Amino acid sequence: MNLQKSIKHFLHGLLMGGADIIPGVSGGTMALIVGVYEDLVAAISHLFTAALSLLRLDLDTIKDRVQQVKWGVILPLGVGIVTALLVGAKFIPGLLEQYPVQCRGFFFGLIAGSLIIPWHRIAQPSPRDYAIAVVAAVVAFVLVGLPPRELADPSLLYVFLCAMVAICAMILPGVSGSFLLLVLGIYEATLTAINDRNMVYVLTFMVGAGLGIGLFSKLLNRLLENYHDITMAALVGLMAGSLRALWPWLAEDRSMLWPGAGDPVGSVVALVVLGVVLVLGLHWLGNRAKAEVSAQA
């Protein structure tokens, strides 16, 4: 395994895990930005099939599916995601609470600047692709406008079901898993369980998340294989519509506001620009590195 590539994918995992903690930012979006999206979806699909085959003791299918996983990408990526979740659960919520407007501005810039990346994966965008992107954007815009709530003591069955739904956002750009947990009412309870090492809660959440992401990855992998351009257009639309959740000035019910007198407009605009420049710069450097490798081949 190439050490340099492993470190790179570990850093990609840090970005994904950090994004999954932040309401309004999707780990799937980060996977698209750093270029590991298709590999991630395929790996989850293969591993889920292998797990189901284990119940049937179908060893040939298990071996075949496990061998198809790009472990050089997935292992360091997974370590990075877990590391970011454990560390970020302690620091990111406090940062968001202390500087909510500035943080949303920075992430708004990151996501806005990244819209061009998955769109370029469509060979020749057609009117159909544009229409699908618009519909998906409207759906995401409405979804992320739902008001958050919080349950003080959710049942384990509810936690299981919420995990099945929210984990899909890990591989679905534009929809934040943390935001879905906010809407479903268990965001704070989940972070508390992680910090307090409440293993019953955490294991219940993990089992629900494993089942949810396994089933959803099968569907998404099939769509990417057979309807790649349509699927990519829908993902771009979801990302664009989700920008509503990252609008810097939001009311308690998540309605969008204009900045008022005394609001830090200058710093927010600067952070939006920084986010756009950062993601486009990383994309440019990645394309340049790929071009140099191709030229040397």
Structure, described:
This protein has helices at residues 3-21, 27-34, 37-55, 59-68, 71-98, 100-114, 116-119, 127-143, 156-166, 177-184, 187-195, 199-226, 228-241, 265-296. The chain is globular. The mean pLDDT is 82. The chain contains 14 helices and no strands. The protein is an all-alpha fold and 297 residues long. The chain has one domain (3-296). Helix 1 runs parallel beside helix 5, helix 6 runs parallel beside helix 14 and helix 9 (156-166) runs parallel beside helix 12 (199-226).
Order of helices and strands: HHHHHHHHHHHHHH
Strand content: under 5%
Q: List unreliable stretches of 5+ residues.
A: none
Shape: globular
Write the layout of secondary structure elements.
Elements: H1 3-21, H2 27-34, H3 37-55, H4 59-68, H5 71-98, H6 100-114, H7 116-119, H8 127-143, H9 156-166, H10 177-184, H11 187-195, H12 199-226, H13 228-241, H14 265-296
Helix pairs in contact: 1-2, 1-5, 3-4, 3-12, 5-6, 6-14, 8-13, 9-10, 9-12, 12-13
Give short descriptive properties of this protein:
single chain, 297 residues, mainly alpha
What is shown here, in short?
This protein is 75% helix and 0% strand.
